[in-house]
Specification:
Helix content of chain A: 10-25%
Number of strands of chain A: 12
Shape of chain B: globular
Radius of gyration of chain B: 17 Å
Oligomer: heterodimer
Strand order of the largest sheet of chain A: 4-3-2-1-8-11-12
Structural class of chain A: alpha/beta
Strand content of chain B: 25-35%
Shape of chain A: globular
Radius of gyration of chain A: 20 Å
Distance between the termini of chain B: 19 Å
Helix content of chain B: 10-25%
Largest interface: A-B, 66 and 65 residues
Number of strands of chain B: 14
Distance between the termini of chain A: 56 Å
Structural class of chain B: alpha/beta
């Protein structure tokens, strides 16, 4: 009997059975590796009470790419676990702030390296670990610490998730993934931390064997569903990320130094 | 008394970098350190696992799959490598970053600093700052010497929630270059056109001034 294919025809099909209350890890850092198409499909699918694990919740522009802030605004989110839960500039605004203030969403703030390691631990069968990060800060107040070699470390628990949404560059039909450049970021960790990983794939699916086994970043074991991203405008293909207004600087010095190598 | 411009502050910090260092630059003013022409081979590390990135590329030339920690589309220098986020923070936590340069809100003369939560905020933006602050071999910080309303940001104790304690070894502001010494700041160098009295008046902690005080050289 043939194995069931991991390749799904549409993003709607791939996210159709995600239940209310699911915990979902969303990959990506800035734009590279963000599963924009899966987020857009989840916005339409409408599951509620979600716990969203993400580096950040996105921006505030109304015409921005699909992000966790939109899921929040769509009343689909109960909790956010992120390394950014409020803007670092007092003048900036993100949608999450109001929902947290009104008690509609719980926000758990986690240092970025701790977030990555909690996901890695979950994917590796390790329930907890100690890290020096955040010792002596408000985040460590009242929590378990332990001294190793004269230095104090904070206990952090693994962060397993029900579902991971990630974006990859290439995939074979078996589910082996290859990421390009900084698209990798959290994505391999989230795939390992999840019971079910759904991938949006940029290039056409390859036959098994077409990716050299030595080049596979995420092995097929961790991948359950994949969808090929259609051409724009049906599919979402981010370009250059709009930059925030730069602070005043000397235009003659604006271009970084060319490195001699 | 405005002193140095933002790029000039970054320039002074970059001159502290030594050949062969692995450097992590925070978002904002710290990224401007990579604009400074210095005679040192630096390997720039970004939290998202990019090791050995180069200049930001202009629109039309960017690689949409490649950004630094600030989300800017950068290039890669020969010898660059990409790792995932857990390996990237493994590099940080295991003490392999020679220096991190962070933009911050406040610093105290005991080496504490704050940069993740503004007054009255519910939540904050930590990013990689707490990992870097706790684990880099050295932590340099860059900030405007005072707030917009003129209140000092170099203090005896941080008023805002701290990012890490006792870790800062160099403070660069528009008024000068400082070293936290526990109960005071040492004024290592002063910005051109700024007086010691102005520095003291704008600082919320004692300032030690060496007899042979140097003036920051503008590149």
């Amino acid at each position: 009997m043939a194995k069931r294919s991991k390749v799904f025809e549409s993003f709607a099909d791939a996210v159709a059975d995600i239940p209310d209350g699911a915990s979902i890890a969303f990959g990506g850092f800035a734009y590279p590796g963000v599963p924009f198409n899966l987020i857009a499909a989840l916005l339409k699918q409408g599951a509620k009470g979600l716990t969203c694990i993400t580096n950040g919740t996105g921006g505030s522009a109304p015409d921005r790419m699909p992000d966790i802030g939109m899921l929040v605004q769509n009343d689909q989110v109960a909790k956010v676990v992120a390394s950014f839960t409020a803007p670092t500039r007092a003048s900036d605004r993100i949608p999450l702030t109001q929902y947290v203030a009104e008690g509609k969403v719980v926000a758990e703030l986690v240092p970025q390296g701790t977030l990555a390691e909690r996901l890695r631990a979950a994917g590796c069968g390790i329930p907890a670990f100690y890290t020096p990060t955040a010792v002596g800060t408000e985040l460590a107040a009242g929590r378990e610490t332990r001294v190793f070699g004269g230095r104090e470390y904070l206990l952090e628990e693994a962060l397993p998730v029900d579902v991971a949404f990630i974006r990859a560059w290439k995939a074979d039909t078996a589910g082996n993934l290859l990421f390009r450049r900084s698209q990798r970021n959290f994505n391999p960790l989230m795939a390992m931390a999840a019971k079910m990983t759904i991938v949006e794939v940029e290039e056409d699916f390859l036959e098994p064997g077409a990716i050299d086994p030595d080049d596979v970043h995420t092995a097929s074991i961790f991948v359950h569903r994949m969808v090929k991203i259609p051409a724009a405008p049906e599919g979402l293909w981010p370009g250059r990320r709009p930059e925030r207004a730069p602070a005043k600087e000397n235009p003659e010095r604006a271009a970084p130094k060319e490195k001699q190598s | 008394m405005s002193g140095l411009e933002r790029q000039q502050i970054a320039d002074r910090v970059a001159q502290e970098f030594q050949d062969g260092w692995i450097v992590n630059l925070g978002v904002g003013m710290p990224t401007m350190c990579s604009n400074t022409p210095i005679d040192a081979d630096i390997l720039y590390h970004a939290e998202n696992g990019v090791i050995g990135y180069g200049p930001v590329l202009p629109a039309g030339q960017e690689d949409v799959h490649l950004v630094n920690a600030g989300g800017q589309n950068v290039s890669l220098n020969p010898g660059a490598a990409i790792v995932h986020h857990a390996d990237s923070f493994g590099i940080i936590r295991s003490g392999r970053i020679d220096v991190t340069v962070l933009g911050i809100y406040e610093v105290a003369c005991n080496g504490d600093f704050a940069n993740w939560k503004v007054a009255g905020a519910n939540g904050g933006g930590i990013g990689g700052a707490m990992d870097l602050a706790a684990c880099a071999k050295q932590v340099f910080v860059i900030l405007e010497h005072t707030t917009r309303d003129g209140s000092p940001r170099l203090l005896r104790e941080c008023a805002l929630p701290v990012t890490a304690r006792g870790v800062v070894s160099l403070v660069a502001t528009n008024l000068g270059l400082f070293k936290p010494l526990g109960d005071r700041f040492l004024l290592r160098e002063i910005a051109p056109g700024v007086t010691v009295d102005q520095v003291r008046a704008a600082t919320g902690a004692p300032v030690e001034v060496p007899a042979d005080l140097k003036v920051i050289k503008i590149l």
